[in-house]
Write a structure and sequence with these properties.
The protein has 135 residues and is an all-alpha fold. The chain has one domain. Helix content is 75%, strand content 0%. The protein contains 6 helices and no strands. The protein has helices spanning 7-27, 31-46, 50-57, 69-90, 95-111, 118-134. Helix 5 (95-111) packs antiparallel against helix 6. The longest helix is centred in the middle third of the chain and has 22 residues, at 69-90. The radius of gyration is 14 Å and the shape is globular.
């Protein structure tokens, strides 16, 4: 049975998705890369539907730590895992959609600036591992 998500749960979904894109962007640093990658990922997020779209396009911006890339990665991956748990428990019909949006946004971000480099591929692999484990 689908249940409504709280504002905090929606923020967790948003933090996981945006954190995944940030993880990919941090793998290939640079202002131009960040702009292109963010734009590419935002198109995927805007194209989501249902509960996933509502969670990712409404409410406040996500909260990710400022600090080392390791701290950002840890927070983003933890949020992804929590997001999958929330969806599995409250809106199981949206698990596949969320997973698809996150992976597609991460992939589009990686491809947006000079194609996918090895560091970005590693980041996507970590994202996929969390989604697979939690899904």
């Amino acid at each position: 049975m689908d249940q409504s998500l709280t504002a905090e749960e929606k923020l967790t979904l948003k933090t996981g998705a945006f954190g995944a894109v940030l993880l990919v962007s941090n793998a290939d640093p640079g202002l131009l890369a960040l702009v292109r990658e963010s734009f590419a990922a935002s198109g995927v997020i805007a194209g989501a539907s249902g509960t996933v779209r509502d969670a990712l396009t409404s409410g406040p911006l996500p909260r990710l730590p400022e600090g080392s890339p390791g701290q950002v990665e840890q927070a983003a991956l933890a949020a992804l895992g929590r997001a999958m748990t929330i969806l599995r428990e409250k809106v199981p019909g949206e698990v596949a959609a969320y997973r698809s949006v996150v992976l597609t946004a991460a992939d589009r971000a990686a491809r947006a600036h000079r194609g996918v480099d090895p560091a970005e591929q590693v980041a996507i692999g970590r994202i996929r591992a969390v989604l697979d484990e939690a899904g």
